[in-house]
Structure formats: structure tokens, C-alpha cells
Amino acid sequence: EFLLYYQPQINLETNQMIGAEALIRWNHPERGLISPSEFIGLAEETGLIIQIGEWVIRTACQQMMKWQADGLPRLRIAINISAKQFTQTNLPDLLRKVLHETGLEPKYLEIEITESMTMDVESAISTLLELKEIGVLISIDDFGTGYSSLNYLKRFPIDKLKIDQSFIRECTSDINDQTIIKTVILMAHFLKLQVIAEGVETKGQANFLLQQGCLEAQGYYFSQPLPVEDFEEKLIQQM
Ligand code: C2E
Ligand code: CA
Ligand code: CA
Known about the structure:
Distance between the termini: 32 Å
Number of strands: 9
Oligomer: single chain
Bound molecules: ligand C2E, calcium ion
Strand order of the largest sheet: 1-2-4-5-6-7-8-9
Order of helices and strands: EEEHHEHHEHEHEHHEHEH
Shape: globular
């Protein structure tokens, strides 16, 4: 009953799709589509998230390979990793296995973690270094909403910051949000990290981000998360 939806990630200068984020849905026989915010927490508590997470990684990689094999544009897929999956399982081993099984090149896979998963600093660094060795990208999701010290940013081998949607929502009117966004973008540039904004819903927000030097974005303004067939159509349009 699980499904993956795919939300396009867009280059703001060219308006081309440059990647996608895989977002899980539960297609319940009676209740219809259930959003992850309603079941991920429970899945974490029960430990089921480990099996679900493995299914997500495998399904997303298989789907990307299928699109590549069909000759469609090659995009990177970003996958959300849960805290348990990051700290209590051997994520590098799982990724190596799935990449080997599916034949997907690691550069097409991006792992989204959150700041809170990096609390155990030494163990997080060693996992992240192993992931870097595999060749996948690492991004920090919901950036700016956790409690991690900026000091970690220079110690963790990460590639990308994803500015949380709470800062984007009022970024055309709220001076504080504007200041925070500008600062995060500058900091990312100085640290040689990529930066993407999520939850972009209006042209005004997209313009503001581009003016500040944020070149990538994702949100309803460009596209909702799409089921496989609809995302495939977008890929075909982009050929
Ligand atoms: P997230 O990783 O921060 O994902 C972004 C959420 O914002 C998604 O909600 C997406 O549909 C929604 N969104 C995208 N564009 C916009 C926009 O322009 N405006 C607004 N208001 N919302 C937008 P979704 O799909 O309901 O997922 C909720 C959360 O569930 C995700 O937050 C993520 O933390 C978690 N999640 C989703 N899929 C997975 C998964 O496969 N594994 C794990 N561990 N967690 C997942
Ligand atoms: Ca995410
Ligand atoms: Ca997020």
C-alpha cells in the first residue's frame, strides 16, 4: 500500500528540472492517500521505519534506473532518511547493496538528513564519511530549524543545505526571514556548499531567492509531488 511520489527540484535560472525528492504516501484501502506526517512518527516508534526506509531507497533507485534505461533525462533523486535509519542501522552497507543491485551510479543519489541526527557527532561524522566514499550526495534537510552548532558545518562532510520552508513562507514580506535566508545562502557559498530552498509557492519567493543567489528550489509554485506517471510526463517534456 506504500507509494512514492516525486517532487521536481528546479534550477531557478534555467527553469529546468535538476532532480527530484522522493516522498512516501500510504494508499490505505479505506482512507485513501495518507500523508507521511501521519504515519512516519508511528513507524519510527515501532521500528517499522527501518523496513519502510529500505523499501523507499530500493524503490526510488529502481525507478531512477528504469527512467534512465528508457532514455529519459538523468536526474538525481533525493531520499529522506529517518533518525533511526541513520543512527541504528548500517546505512552505508544498505546503500552499497541497493546501488549494486540496481546499477544506479552513486552520483544520482542524494541523502537528506536533519540536524538532529548529528547529535552524536563522532558517530555521525564516521557514517557521513563512509557515505561520501560511496559517492552519494548529502544534504541537511529543514536547515535552520534544529539545534546543531554551526561548528559542525565545517566538520561534517556535507554537500548541500536545504533552507526550511518556514523561512520561505513569508520571505517576500518578513525582514527577519529575508535576513536569515540571505545569511544562510552566503554562508553556504563561503563554505562551498550547494543550497536549495523548499516550500516555494509563489513567483515572488522564487525571484527573491534567485536575487540572493540561491539557484535551486522546490515547491508547489513549480510542481506538487507527483505520482510516477505524471513525473514521467514531466521528464518526457524536458527532452
Ligand atoms: P520534508 O522532507 O520536509 O518534505 C517536504 C514536505 O513539504 C513534503 O510533505 C512536501 O509534499 C511538502 N511540500 C512541498 N512543496 C511544498 C510547498 O510549496 N508548500 C508546502 N506547504 N508544502 C510543500 P510530505 O510529502 O507530506 O512529507 C512530510 C514529511 O514526511 C517530509 O518532510 C519528511 O520529513 C517525511 N517523509 C516523507 N517521505 C519520507 C520517506 O520516504 N522517509 C522518511 N523517513 N520520511 C519521509
Ligand atoms: Ca526532505
Ligand atoms: Ca524539509
